[in-house]
Amino acid sequence: MNNKTGQIYILTIIKVFIPKFLYIQKKLKGFPITFTIIHLIHFFAVFIYGGFLFVDNLFMSKMSQTLDEEETKKAREAIMMHVRKVVPWALLIAVASGIYLIGKVFGPISEDGLSSFQIMLSIKAFFGLWLGVRGFNQKFFKINPFLFTSHLFPFLCVVLIIFLSQIMYA
After folding, report:
1. Contact assessment for residue 48 and residue 95, using Cβ atoms and an 8 Å cutoff
2. Residue 41: phi, psi to the nearest 5?
3. 3 and 85 in contact (C-beta within 8 Å)?
4. Each residue of 82-111: pLDDT tens digit?
């Protein structure tokens, strides 16, 4: 496999599924299905990125307990070479779709200020954008983070975002 494999996977998904959804949207004469499609794309992209962070922090970090140092490096690199092709693109898609979704659900700011929903959505956006900037810099500029270099902080950000997602509609 070459370095473009992750791009090919994502482009294939876009080329196969998006035209079908757009055709359905045209047939329904403007039915608001675009939000649902973007929301599904966001959900799956977040699932890929968040799933990697869960596996990395909860399982891959424990490989050194049963493997020696050389085997651990070899096993981790065997997995990470595939992860690097897909996960950064999933993160960037999650951030881009999240920006679209926020624009649709944030709503107007009342005279009383931000609602609790808007405050929690803003916190989610801050952490999501931070992850996106971090991922963008790593993917395109090869700039590794100076602070929070492990995947523990992004993992905690994802857990916080999931927690906020669960309580923000209450």
Report:
1. no
2. -60, -45
3. yes
4. 998 999 999 999 999 999 889 888 888 899
DSSP three-state, residue 110 = strand
Q: Note the pLDDT of residue 121.
A: 93
User: Which residues have C-beta within 8 Å of that of residue 38, sequence separation ≥ 6?
Assistant: 97, 100, 101
d(CA 18, CA 24): 10
What is the Cα–Cα distance from 92 to 139, expressed in whole angstroms? Answer: 10
Q: Kindly tell me the burial class for residue 46, based on how many C-beta atoms sit within 10 Å of its own C-beta (0-12, 13-18, 19 or more).
A: buried
What is the Cα–Cα distance from 126 to 161, expressed in whole angstroms?
Answer: 10
Provide the token pair at 86. 């897909």
- State the pLDDT at residue 28: 47
Is 117:123 a contact under the CB 8 Å cutoff? Answer: no
- Averaged pLDDT score across all residues of the chain: 83
